[in-house]
Amino acid sequence: MRNCSRVLIALLAIVKSISVCASECTPFGNAPAQVNYGWFINFVSARYPLCLGGGVLGPWTDPGGDKRYACVYEPENSRATDPLPLVLFLHPSIVTADSVRLTGLVGLTDKADLGGKTHGFILLAPEGRYTSHFYPGLDSNALGWDNWYRQLSPIGDVRVGDTVYPENRDAAAIDHFVQQVLATRNVDRRRIYAMGWSNGAAMALLYALNRPWIAAAAVYSAPDPFAALFDVCTQAPVIVEPAGNGQARIFNPKVPLMHVRNSCDIGGICPNGSRFATRMRALGNSFYDVILDPSERNITSCDDTCGTDEMADGQISRGASFRGLVNHMRWPADWNGRMLNFLKQH
Fold this sequence. Notes:
This protein is of the alpha/beta class. The protein has helices spanning 2-23, 39-45, 169-184, 199-208, 269-282, 318-328, 336-344; strands spanning 55-61, 67-73, 84-90, 122-126, 129-132, 141-144, 158-160, 163-165, 187-197, 216-220, 236-238, 247-249, 257-262, 287-292, 298-299.
């Protein structure tokens, strides 16, 4: 009976927290993400990324008062006469901007052909901030990106009725570092691309769909940035004025997107990605969907043993959860060439 009481109390707490979150839904989805800063988070968040092999940009203080940093990697010819493409990479949650080195992209900055007059590209990896996430466990409050507050208007703050909604702080930080690179490096402004992994992939999709200067995006293992997991303020993307809080206007709907995901992925997000693909195509987006099996071969469908729920509610077996976690934590380096070629073609 004592255990049953504890379960009941826990369930009531969950229901209460959901109702509170639901009451805070805004015209831009959830309210801006907050975090309870403890001494450990204060210590870690005050550190800048190491950016081994590259340079550190920052600190820049965002509208909420957090100091923000970014890593930048560039080939020796980045200051040559011919401008180079710029690739923006957003890291997964929990890890730092330095994790871009796990993808193999840093080693391609001096040799990949992204359509410039010379080979190579500039790689910009901003770092997220500590916020609350609609993810389970340790990831519910961790370093990462707030893709649940979807006020990414290119003009900045927006007024709806009597309320002014500030720009998403993470989008503002990304904007700042993109502009800094544009001002100090020789960049081909027609070829500014977005990439990302996991939570960073969701933010990269949201950013690309709202920034007209992003020519294309190629991401890996992204939850749907408009509706996934425990998000209670889900929205449907639209290209017109929203009819209510259940819709989110996007400002770059035709941006070509390459969406690489695993047939068995963390939390069961493969079917969540299928719904996102359907929504994008309905808006007329040029959407290239790639589903990988454990050997990184392109297949046509998700593994149903790893979840079938379109919200990726995580209700799957332990074995499937482990397989999904292993797949999710491995960047598909063998697909780097194809992902970069997709960007080149756009």
